[in-house]
Amino acid sequence: MKASNNTNLTQANALTIDVEDYFHVEAFSSVVKRTDWGNKYPLRVEKNTHHILNILEQHNVKATFFVLGWVAEACPTLSRAIVAGGHELASHGFSHQHANKQTQETFKQDIIRSKHLLEDQSGVRINGYRAPSFSIGQKNTWAFETLYQAGFIYTSSTYPVKHDIYGTPEWPRFKHLRQEGIVEIPIPTLEVFNRNVPIGGGGYFRLYPYALSRYFIQRFKQQTQQPFSFYFHPWEIDPEQPKMRGISMKSRVRHYLNLPRMEPRIHQLLSDFNWDTMFNTYQLHGLVNDEEPSNQEDSTQRLFSLGQLR
């Protein structure tokens, strides 16, 4: 974490990166087959993530990387590179399927597979999880219990806004301990005329002029006295990525809008505010328990995983 030169709001904020490739995004799911991931559509996520690591090093910033298990499997040295840079490694699930489109058992296997793979690759415990497209909501609250039982201590999987793909506008806006025993850290919103305005990053950060995004962050921190968290993806700093065919105009605008402006904006964002990992920013150290909740089935699966890698 480094001191901010341009604002007196010195409280640390959480910088997060959802590590997935351009062909994983929901906007392309109707035209991209899973069997074509990394084949017809070449991998660019490893190069882009290393570029982000270099940017963070320039600014002396630490961040949380929510890594998709599929990416970790395809790029087996990436997890170690993230940890070697002093960053927090967390899970984005394995298959990039929406949690609200999975059965509880499928979800359980997906998060366990991802958690174990990342831990085996990196040698560190994985404490955090973020669902693809913030896909935990009223219809699958069982996901919180499943995550807790799998050994996660926090999740950042809800976005209290109205959106055509995701959103839980009636849910809490700030960090809270759920009844299942796991902490949820929602994506930040700004309350304007009794409506939650999305300000947490991604496509909205590319849509808004940077000066407006900076104002939103400052206003959020002043009004709420809460840390701010920000997310983006490696493909968002890659304007040279292949252009997808056969997608709707809405999907095209959502994905490609202002990609060439994203990297300069990230540099400015890192200069204007203080940044750190989710784990440090939200002071989650006291929640770590050396003995993870587990059952015999999970323990057997874990031993098999470790045996395969050894």
From TrEMBL:
Per UniProt, residues of the NodB homology domain are 29-310
The segments labelled Disordered in the record are 290-310
Q: Which CDD domains match?
A: CE4_PuuE_HpPgdA_like_2
GO BP annotations listed: carbohydrate metabolic process
Show the Pfam families listed in the entry. DUF3473 (PF11959), Polysacc_deac_1 (PF01522)
Any single GO molecular-function term of the entry would be: hydrolase activity, acting on carbon-nitrogen (but not peptide) bonds
Gene3D superfamilies xrefs: Glycoside hydrolase/deacetylase
User: Which NCBIfam families does the record cross-reference, listed alphabetically?
Assistant: pepcterm_polyde (TIGR03006)
Q: Which PANTHER family match?
A: POLYSACCHARIDE DEACETYLASE FAMILY PROTEIN (AFU_ORTHOLOGUE AFUA_6G05030) (PTHR47561:SF1)
Q: Return the protein name.
A: Polysaccharide deacetylase
Q: Tell me the classification of the organism that encodes this protein.
A: Bacteria, Pseudomonadati, Pseudomonadota, Gammaproteobacteria, Vibrionales
